[in-house]
Every structure is written in structure tokens, then in C-alpha cells.
């Protein structure tokens, strides 16, 4: 993998020097960034999750949904070494845009937006006491460490 990457970089550098001259070698970081971007999934340390044809027969906990609550819950439960936790997620693979928080507005009403806006209040309306938005908000805040001073001032929705 490293040999292929190195030869690709050298080829790109040679092509860049041939096209724009040796004095314009400053474009090299942009070439490397572009190559990394277009082969992002190969270099991503988190890479793609492994789909398993078979799962174990027995788990201590099965969590449906790896959203903001499911991920935190699974992480906390796996702190106990003897517990086996299965986390199931229906969503597809992430894109480069999903890794950049400031681009999250581009994801609204896209295929990665599940449209969960008033679910917590609806669950409470169905008789699930303690599941309203106001009831679960303290737990979301507990899992957050908002270091943006502007957002951290809003203590109703953010915590540090």
C-alpha cells in the first residue's frame, strides 16, 4: 500500500513539475491532499465497519441505533469487560461531509438525515414516562463537552 502511494505521489510530482515547472513545486501539498481525498476510504483510520455474516448467539445487551444515545450507551456498557454488547445501525457508510461538523447543515433532509425532531416527546405521549425531550436533555448534556465559548454560554442546551 505504501509503495503504491509513494509511486503515485512521485508520478504526480513529476507530472506537476513537467506542467508548471520546478519553481512552482508549492502545489505539491495540494496534490497530496487531493489524492488523499479521492482515496479517503483507503486511508481513513476508522474505515468501513466490518459486516459480519454471523453474529454471536448470546449478548448481554443489544442496542438498536448508533445515534447520539446508542453510541454513548454502547461505549459505557463496554467498559465492563465481561459484558458483550451488540450495536446495530441501519444507516449506510458515512461520507467525507459527515466527518466535518461545520458541513452538517448540508446533510439536513438528505439520505443520512433520519428526521428525528420530536420523537422524544412523541414517546412520552405514548406513555413512556421519562422519555420526553426535557427529560432526556440532561443526559445528552452530560455526554457533551462543548468547548466553543459562544455555544457553551447557552447552558440550556450545552454543557462543558
What would you note in describing this structure?
GO terms for molecular function: flavin adenine dinucleotide binding; oxidoreductase activity. This is Glucose-methanol-choline oxidoreductase N-terminal domain-containing protein. Residues 1-15 form the signal peptide. InterPro entries: FAD/NAD-bd_sf (IPR036188), GMC_OxRdtase (IPR012132). This protein is mainly alpha-helical and 160 residues long. It is built from 7 helices and 2 strands; from the N terminus they run αααβαβααα. Helix 1 (2-20) crosses helix 2. The chain is extended.
List keywords for this structure.
about 160 residues, 7 helices, two-stranded parallel ribbon, mainly alpha
Q: Secondary-structure map with pairings?
A:
Blueprint: H1 2-20, H2 28-38, H3 40-43, E1 61-64, H4 68-77, E2 85-88, H5 119-125, H6 133-142, H7 149-152
Parallel strand pairs: 1-2
Radius of gyration: 22 Å
* Strand-pairing-aware structural class: mainly alpha
What is the overall number of helices? 7
Helix share bin: 40-55%
Which sequence of SSEs, written as H and E, runs from N to C?
HHHEHEHHH
Strand content: 5-15%
**Overall pLDDT metric:** 79
Strand count: 2
Overall shape: it is extended
Compute the separation of the termini in Å.
41 Å
Q: pLDDT under 50 segments (min length 5)?
A: none
For the largest beta sheet, what order do the strands appear in spatially?
1-2
Describe the largest sheet: 2 strands, parallel
GO molecular function: flavin adenine dinucleotide binding; oxidoreductase activity
Family: Belongs to the GMC oxidoreductase family.
Keywords: Signal
Organism: Rhamnusium bicolor
Amino acid at each position: 500500500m505504501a509503495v503504491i502511494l509513494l509511486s503515485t505521489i512521485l508520478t504526480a510530482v513529476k507530472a506537476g513539475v513537467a506542467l508548471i515547472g520546478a519553481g512552482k513545486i508549492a502545489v505539491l501539498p495540494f496534490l497530496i491532499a487531493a489524492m488523499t481525498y479521492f482515496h479517503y476510504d483507503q486511508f481513513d483510520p476508522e474505515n468501513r465497519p466490518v459486516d459480519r455474516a454471523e453474529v454471536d448467539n448470546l449478548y448481554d445487551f443489544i442496542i438498536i441505533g448508533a445515534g447520539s444515545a446508542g453510541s454513548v450507551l454502547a461505549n459505557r456498557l463496554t467498559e465492563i469487560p465481561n459484558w458483550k454488547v451488540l450495536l446495530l445501525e441501519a444507516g449506510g457508510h458515512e461520507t467525507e461531509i459527515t466527518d466535518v461538523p461545520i458541513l452538517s447543515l448540508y446533510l439536513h433532509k438528505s439520505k443520512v438525515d433520519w428526521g428525528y425532531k420530536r420523537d422524544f416527546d412523541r414517546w412520552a405521549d405514548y406513555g413512556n414516562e421519562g422519555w420526553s425531550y426535557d427529560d432526556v436533555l440532561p443526559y445528552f448534556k452530560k455526554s457533551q463537552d462543548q468547548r466553543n465559548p459562544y455555544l457553551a454560554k447557552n447552558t440550556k442546551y450545552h454543557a462543558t
